[in-house]
Design brief:
Layout lengths: L2 E4 L12 H19 L9 E6 L2 E5 L2 H7 L8 H13 L4 H20 L4 H22 L5 H14 L7 H17 L6 H4 E7 L7 E3 L1 E5 L13 E3 L2 E5 L19 H24 L4 E4 L5 H9 L3 E3 L4 H11 L3 E2 L11 E2 L2 E7 L2 E7 L7 E7 L2 H24 L2 E3 L3 H14 L6 H11 L2 H10 L3 H15 L6 E3 L6 E3 H4 L2 E3 H19 L13 H10 L6 H14 L22
Helix pairs in contact: 1-4, 2-3, 3-4, 3-18, 4-14, 4-18, 5-13, 5-14, 5-18, 6-7, 6-12, 7-12, 13-14, 15-16
């Protein structure tokens, strides 16, 4: 694995420009950002090592890298936004959308320099993008669901660090999302599908729990005496603190005899014992609480054959409640059997160096937990990002119900379609449509470059194939394994059609935003550090020092007099009603 070091700061300083120079500067900044993630595209993409303070991240996920880069150029930050948008909506294609947006701008750059109106460009590329999206929708197909989901999950994992283990993770991901979809909650993946990381061991030791699993919480001495295995247990979930609480700060109790003090102490013990008795009387075998369960309660439950765990995270408690049909209680008064949940089996299991509490064979199959293993923390973190992307891709595949081929096939087919459309257009719009169609070739070209394949020969072969055979060759893309071209649909490289549609729309919108900016206005810092504080103290009225300063400045501006004063580098007075 080749790791590249990325200095996480893009364009920390930039000039203050207007018009065409500003447009060109923005385009150059976007190209610099795209170059930072260009080599991560595809199954042969490289990883980036991003160092930020004491933290280092190794990843080839476009959204992760873009988020970690400290991009100072205001216009270039648009690419970060579209990458994050793609990650949230689809989960995959975060690098592709950045490359597409930057390449569209790069192909339009000569037209900008020649003086073609940016407004005209924006109108034309929006129409062209609509045609491209319609073409992708027309190309998409809807095969049998299980096969479609498995191949989409495998394709999403194919470019990740765990690509060699996609036979293990793809079925896990599909199983988890399918169960969620069956209950009508596929939009709540992050709430009901948990991913737990355990350092150590082989990645093949990762497994799927069809239920809930969470790491053993902080416990007291009596924990080891508890029963760690139950079949068909009754589960009580609480948001109650089960431990003796110290007095409030500065609390005062007035007593007249030692016996009164003892009665206060006895009352405190009676409160906690009443709570514990209520939990036992409810018939529960397992007691979980979001708040602490102290040493007294731990030993009390252990003596009576119950299992308890305190400080359970909010997310894990909600998943247990959903899986077992239990209700979280905020008091121990009036506990009935209706508020208790159940599952087929509860056990505490040793996984690596950690102990995990597992709830399986639950009445609700809505929740799942994926437990990831790996040798290093960076590897497991990247595995988690990869599995999350695959989950999102499978979710979008279920929602869209249609797929297209990957490997640059869709981009080449749409590029060929737009190239033919451009020949039927008169005027300068033909140049804009041609530039857009040419920009789509960046995906297959970069796939070739990252795989060490001659991109010139491969793209020439793809252009000829798509031009000669038309829609009969629509699934022909780059053969990453052996070089040349191949039918990627038959090869099993499938992606949800929403992935391509969202990439085209987001890249076009980002390009339009960049093209619409002809000036960057930066508010310069005050040259007098005390001026602002003085103005705030004396108020904004005309009688104060700040009011006098503003009045003098406006008098000079309205009279057409020359303006003076030291300004920040690259900042000048703007012409307007004040003259200047």
């Amino acid at each position: 694995m080749t790791i590249l070091f990325v200095y996480a700061n893009i364009y920390p300083c930039f000039p203050s420009l207007q018009g065409t120079p500003q447009l060109v500067s923005n385009i150059n900044a976007c190209q610099a950002v795209a170059d930072a993630v260009r080599t991560t595209l595809g199954p042969r993409g490289m990883d980036k090592l991003v160092a930020k303070g004491n933290r280092t991240t190794i990843s080839n996920d476009g959204a992760t890298i873009m988020k970690l880069l400290e991009i100072a150029h205001p216009a270039a930050k648009t690419l970060v936004d579209i990458s994050m948008s793609q990650d949230m909506s689809v989960g995959d294609g975060t690098t592709s959308v950045v490359l597409l947006a930057a390449e569209i701008l790069a192909k339009l750059k000569p037209l900008v320099e020649e003086g073609l109106s940016p407004t005209r460009m924006i109108q034309t590329i929006r129409r062209t993008s609509k045609q491209a999206v319609d073409k992708v929708t027309e190309m998409s197909v809807s095969p049998e669901q299980e096969t479609m989901l498995l191949k989409c999950a495998s394709t999403a994992l194919n470019s990740k660090l765990i690509s060699s283990h996609q036979d293990l993770f793809a079925p896990m991901v599909v199983s988890a999302v399918t169960k969620l979809h069956a209950s009508g909650n596929v939009d709540e993946i992050e709430d009901w599908i948990a991913i737990k990381r355990i350092p150590g061991g082989d990645v093949r030791s990762s497994f799927l729990v069809e239920g809930v699993a969470f790491k053993k919480t902080f416990s007291y001495a009596g924990f080891e005496q508890m029963t760690k295995w139950f079949e068909n247990p009754k589960i009580l979930l609480l948001n109650v603190e089960l431990e003796l609480k110290s007095e409030k700060e500065n609390a005062e109790v007035r007593i007249s005899s030692p016996s009164e003090y003892q009665s206060i102490v006895d009352a405190e013990w009676q409160v906690i014992y009443d709570k514990l008795d209520a939990c036992v009387a409810s018939g529960a075998n397992i007691v979980l609480s979001k708040l602490p369960i102290g040493d007294l309660a731990t030993q009390y439950f252990a003596d009576r054959g119950l299992f308890c765990a305190g400080r359970v995270s909010d997310g894990d408690l909600k998943r247990v409640a959903k899986a077992t049909n239990a209700n979280v209680q905020t008091t121990t008064n009036g506990l009935t059997e209706e508020v208790l949940g159940t599952c087929g089996l509860f056990e505490e299991k040793q996984v690596g160096d950690e102990r995990f509490n597992l709830f399986t064979t639950c009445p609700s199959t809505l929740t799942c937990t994926i437990v990831l293993r790996g040798g290093t923390e960076q590897f497991i973190a990247e595995s988690e990002r990869s599995v999350h992307d695959a989950l999102m891709v499978v979710k979008r595949t279920i929602q869209s119900g249609s797929v297209v081929a990957g490997g640059g096939a869709v981009e080449m087919c749409v590029s060929n379609f737009l190239r033919r459309q451009a020949l039927e257009i008169e005027g300068k719009e033909q140049l804009i449509v041609s530039a857009f169609s040419k920009a789509l070739e960046v995906i297959p070209r970069q796939l070739c470059d990252n795989a060490g394949i001659d991109s010139t020969d491969t793209l020439s072969a793809l252009r000829r194939k798509h031009a000669q055979d038309g829609d009969d060759a629509k699934w022909f893309g780059v053969n990453i394994e052996q070089g040349g071209i191949i039918d990627t649909f038959d090869l099993g490289v499938w992606e949800p059609s929403d992935n391509k549609v969202n990439s085209l729309e987001a890249a076009t919108e980002a390009a339009c935003v960049i093209l619409s900016i002809d000036e960057t206005v930066i508010s310069p810092p005050s040259q007098d550090p005390g001026a602002q504080a003085s103005g705030m103290i004396n108020g904004g009225g005309g009688g104060g020092p700040m009011g006098g300063m503003m009045g003098n400045a406006m008098d000079v501006a309205n009279s057409g007099g020359a303006r003076s004063g030291q300004l920040a580098p690259g900042v000048s007075y703007m012409k307007g009603r004040g003259g200047g």
